[in-house]
Amino acid sequence: MLKNIVFDFGNVVMNYDPDKILNHYDLSPADHELLKKTIFQSKEWLEIDRGNLSEDEATKIFIKKLPKRLHDQARTIMQTWPSKVVFYQDVFDWMKELKADGYHIYALSNTGMRFANYLMKSKYGENFDGGVFSAAEKLMKPDARIYEKLLTRYHLKAGESLFIDDLKENTAAAEDLGMYGFTFWIDKLSELKDYVSKIGKEQ
């Protein structure tokens, strides 16, 4: 019986698009591109997700790479970018329906803790019964160990759990552990709803 539905964050519950995030700041086209490359496309950004750098440590590295005129802007972006993403309200509305139907909802995401804490402390966080995040665990999907941490921490059975992610390699890793997997993009929401309904009826 399907009991647990596990959501990734980026491009599943919100639109992770550095260009759209940076559009919220007053930047010239050249500065927009420079900040995108220096911050969001950097190796340090991945190290934040891996838990090897804090956001503040990464900010200091970014500042060293940028001209002085962009130092304050870089600090502001690093502090405030989580509030600039667009959340998918339709997904969160569906989560409420799922919880009303008795499902448990969890998060499993490759993310730094600044964003994870922002989301989980926001109005959207109340939809989740728990979460496991790469920066805190120092493990990244599709490493099987991060999925196993979620299952163990919340006493979940793999065969009763569905994992939703925007990357096929991540849903495939969940399936290898016996979980259901669904590779998602926002235009697949109706397909995902049908899938949950189908596998729920099969058991």
Task: Explain what this protein looks like in three dimensions.
It is a single chain. Helix content is 51%, strand content 13%. It has helices at residues 18-22, 29-40, 43-50, 55-65, 71-80, 89-100, 113-121, 134-137, 144-153, 168-176, 189-201; strands at residues 4-7, 14-15, 86-87, 104-109, 130-133, 161-165, 180-183. This is HAD superfamily hydrolase. One of its GO terms (molecular function) is hydrolase activity. Keywords: Hydrolase.
Feature tags:
Rossmann fold; two-stranded antiparallel ribbon; alpha/beta; 203 residues; single chain; five-stranded parallel beta sheet
In short:
This is HAD superfamily hydrolase. It contains eleven helices and seven strands.
* Strand elements, count: 7
Q: Globular, elongated, flat, extended or rod-shaped: what is the shape?
A: elongated
Low-confidence stretches: none
How far apart are the first and last residues' alpha carbons, in Å? 5 Å
Based on secondary structure, the structural category is: alpha/beta
Please tell me the CATH architecture of the largest domain by its name.
Answer: 3-Layer(aba) Sandwich
Task: Enumerate how many helices there are, as a single number.
Answer: 11
Return the string of H and E elements: EEHHHHHEHEHEHHEHEH
What gyration radius follows from the Cα positions, in whole Å?
18 Å
The overall average pLDDT, rounded, is 97
Largest sheet, in brief, is: 5 strands, parallel
Number of domains: 2
CATH topology of the largest domain: Rossmann fold
**Helix-residue proportion:** 40-55%
Oligomer state equals single chain
Proportion in β-strands: 5-15%
Widest beta sheet: strand line-up: 5-4-1-6-7
CATH level 4 superfamily of the largest domain: HAD superfamily/HAD-like
The CATH class label of the largest domain is Alpha Beta
